[in-house]
Amino acid sequence: MPKQLEKKLVEDYVIEKLQEIGWRYVEAKDLERASLDEPLLLDDLKQKILEINQNVEFTEDDINEIIRMLQNASTNQNGHRDILNYFKYGVPIKTEKEKISRKILLFDFQNPQNNEFIFTNQFDFFGRENIRLDLILFVNGIPLVNIESKNPYTRKTDYRDAFLQIKRYEKVSPELYKYIQIGIGFAEKVKYFPIIPWLEEDKIDQFVWRWEGKEDDEAIFVMLEPKNLLDILKNFIFIREVRGEIKKVVPRYMQFRAANKIYQRVIDNLNGETNKNKGLIWHWQGSGKTLTMIFSAYKLYYEKRLENPTIFFIVDRRDLEEQLNSELSSLDLGFEFERIESIKNLKEVITWDNYKGKRGVFLTLIHKFDTEEEFILNELENVEGINIRKNVICFLDEVHRTQYGELAGKMHAILKNGFFFGFTGTPIMSKDRNTYEKFGYISEGEMYLDKYFIDDAQKDGFVVPIVYEMRKEEVRLKDQDLEWYFEKVDAEDIADEVETKMLREEIRRRINEITVFLENEKNIEIICEDIAQHFKENFDGKFKGLIVTGSRKACVIFKEILDKYLPSEYSEVVMTFNPSDPREPQEIQTYREKLIKRFNIQDTDEIIKIIIEKFRKEENPKLLIVTDMLITGFDEPQLGVLYLYKLLKDHRLLQAIARVNRPYIEKECGLVVDYVGIFKDLKRALEVYSEDEKLVEGVVIDKDAPFEKFVEILKELRNLLGDFIGKFEKESFDGALEIIKNPETGKEFEELYKKLRRLFEFLKSDERVIKYLSDYKWVTALYEGYKKLMKPDLDESKIEKFFNNTIAIIRELIEVDPLLKIRKPLLIDLQYIKSLKENLDLSEKERTIGIINAIDLLVRTIGDKNPIYKSIADRVRELVEKWQEDEINLEELGIEVDKIVSYIEEKEEEHKRTGLNEIEFGIKLILENKIKAPSDELENWAKQIYKNIKSQLFEKWNKNPAVVKEVEKIIRETLIEMRGKYKFSYEEFNNLHKEIFDYICKNA
């Protein structure tokens, strides 16, 4: 099936599905557009503004002012922020007749059926370049979604090509893409992403939308259902600024699903359809649980039926409070949130305006509630005005932990009719049935309102697998201590910040003994030496690391010893300090004084913030040494390894190891190095979940799994490449290149090799890999040759640091394979093509392949602008496809390649000799390909055409429909004159007219 036909089938499928879910199809030629450079359907938009805002008395000038504000919004980051705010809250204007300021709504979010949903395909837009979009979706005349499709039945093009096409369109048509919020690539995969023109493609998050009972290519239409798209626009898309970088947030499917379940539970309760007023949400760590809470709160905050909602975010740890505070602060939510500092502050919020309650979103930390002020809680519990309030919503984070018990119970007692939603990133322990009862409806079979398993998160690419490795048996805890810990100690009891006097005497004594063992300097010396070597060999320059120790004192010891093996700037300690506590160990006091002196800052909290910021943004520190801080809630994708020398189990263990599960460039897995011995019996460490083993299945795997995957991929490559693998002979490389010259096979090879390379870098220190090293070297040499000859534009320089072990292998192989001696050119041009032609180290096959792929690249990248390469585009494409499909042999290919190179050289020289400008020379080459006539005559005709149209070619002429028609007419008239002389057919006349007109539109 021809490529164009297969692509059209995809487009037709999308058109059909969109109509099924309520969108109206309009052919592009039938859209009422003011001009080809106007993104808005102005008549539709004006009509909808009048219909949606019937309470406003508009003049024509008012409507025009609204349109002007949209059109005049800049295409930079601030403009995108303004446009999104106009979409969400309306366009602020002062109406002429009423003389009052109003926000004029562009969409009716309350009544989706009152909006107009239309779409079209093959939509032309004239920006800095002229582009044609596959599909574009308009709501009330405003373009909101762009879908680009590629043929899903071939490896020649894929989803990424669709994604990159939209990214290119963003840059050349900024006036269009300041309105569009979501891009969708539709190919062998279907993914959506936010439109952020100022960010490069490697910084854009791309997601698959999944929905129960639907395949991925169908599930995307759930997202595009008119009511859902409006919901997403209003409640789930935000501008976010993090560490100076501005991005746009769009929801993941499980966030949208859970937030709407929460919203619907509240609404159903308010409408008297249910008495349920709580729910438990378990979304695996790394899946965006915090944003789910914020999406839910935002949607409820603007819900009119709640009148003056009071919404609480409640956490039990300072670092979680800071994380949530940071997340709330980073988002452009349209309202300010407040932090509650005390019970008195809480009382003010709840009793505001004679117990109607204060409208807002409030963040509080449980530990700030002083038990001495419990009388205030008791007082509030007996106030009827508070008891009957239904517009209080509480979101409690990490509810699996025990600290919530008393306060949560007290708040339930006060806010009897309020709503309570618990969130957790780890499954609830089997012994903690209490949590299910507080937030679920066990008798009705509802344990979770919504859940998102680890296998879902890995499948969706939101987390990477976690691999564990046990090292240095001589420093591990004794088996009997581990056994006692697993059996007797609750997960919280070993926390550094816990007041051990509250524990039973026997437990306190054993914990103290274990702590002393974990602070043993001899053991720490062994571990630090090993960490230094392991980190430098496997992670330095690629990823960063976390060292989790048994106590704050151990943190200081680790830092002092680690500095003997690594530069001091490599590591920093992140922990709390208690200078006013007389029991504070001297080692910690001394370290604090040194820290203050080094940073010249008295506030250690401020120093810790600086250290964390440097860890995120700068080369150093590379390792953070912690005991309790950062092992929960710290989200840093650069973390590749966690070195563990602390007793952890259950949810604390799950939370700690999940620090390394965030995806990052070239990150295949996160690694946990266990020095304490917990992973010796992983099942015991996680046995509290044994009632539902599926909940933690695959949470962490040993190093056998990635090794087995490495071997499996090598087998796949052997199946693909046959017996050539491992033979360092020219004939073997030539034979393999012959196999992967086909685009589909080449793409398969490229994907397999990149996966293999990531695994090799991860497993490099695994002795078992040595057996396969020769094969890996051979495949690497082939890949480097493949890149240089067939993908001369593929630039991996930005990510080379992530495979430095492989780079070392490439240097070693240079003498084996002359292909590796070819330097990556700074510029692919005629000079580069000549250098390949003259390279005697390459075989005839390698030279020919390299030249044809370089020419093909030039045709694809500059063909529209360079008349010489445009003139050979069809010829080159046909030649490449014939060679890839084995329709011509190498000798025939070589002959044709030589002809093309000679043609390029000849035309470059001719261009200089004739003195024609770029447009004239381009027209001359088009004429030359269609008409048999003397060269000087065609030169004169090219000059004549350009002379006739020159007066029309002012700036942005091609955006004015009247001028475009005039240029078309002038070209047609000149060609009619030529037809009279050269007697070409009417079909040839039309083709010639179209080709010349298209060339002038794009280049003049």
CATH architecture of the largest domain: Alpha-Beta Complex
Under CATH, the topology of the largest domain can be stated as tt1808, chain A
Weakly predicted, low-confidence segments = 1-5, 491-503, 818-823
Largest sheet: 7 strands, parallel
Shape: globular
Between the first and last Cα atoms, what is the distance in angstroms? 36 Å
In helices, the fraction of residues equals 40-55%
Read across the widest sheet, the strand sequence of neighbours is: 13-14-12-15-16-11-17
Q: What's the total helix number?
A: 39
- Find the count of extended strands (DSSP E, 2+ residues): 24
Average of pLDDT: 83
**Total number of domains:** 5
Give the C-level CATH assignment of the largest domain: Alpha Beta
